[in-house]
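Quick one:
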Amino acid sequence: MRLTYIGYSEKMIQCLLADERLTLVGIITKPGVISPETKMMIADQKIDLYEMNEKADICRIEDHIRTDKVLIYKFGYIIPRDIIARHDFYNIHPGSIENNRGAHPLRWTILLGDEKTWLTLYQITGIDEGNVICEEEIEVGSSDYIELDHKLDAHLEKVLDRYVDFIQEGCIAETVRKERGTYRPKVQEADYTIDIENDTYDVIKRKIRAVKDFGGAVILLDQMKYRVREIVTEDEAESEKGKSVPIELKKNGKRYVLICEEYVWK
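Output:
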């Protein structure tokens, strides 16, 4: 089956290249996100690679779609309706499309304290609409954003199996329409800024975990902004002396230390 992939997941590219049932014809991605090693592998396979310069290029991606079937995973932009109408589009969403739609589902999964999330494959039938093909359930546990992202990637081969089965057999779990489901906005800095007076220990931990890839949560103190990479007990903080800015706080009768560093935007 000939396929175009839209996204920047190197794990997905590896899975597609390794699957003998699929022929990857083209990749549409963002600039600077695919490693030189993977680019070399793509070139060796003589696969067309198109790196969009900016979001405005979204209307020109159809020039690089040379297959009927298109698979999206980790892309971040909405494909125009007219392009969707001319191809058979499928999307893999890192969350539930019933209660965690939007651009940052993994971050919201952690911020909201959800115990589970899903890797959801659905056939796009219109903007915000689709036929659900499969949902792979993943335990969140104490995972930070990076760890949870890896957990979802580990299920990609299973999702691809269900994708091929769907193409061959056409089974559909259910249709989800735009009138249903909860959309969540893009996560803003305010969502992971620590309120030292009101946030509980668990809330602080979730805020740190949700943006681990950015260096941690944010705290404002004496008109200074810091990145908070961990909250630890006083004893655990001993090993961090001299390496960070410690901020002490008391929660539920226990004393903790926020391990902070100078704020740097990533």
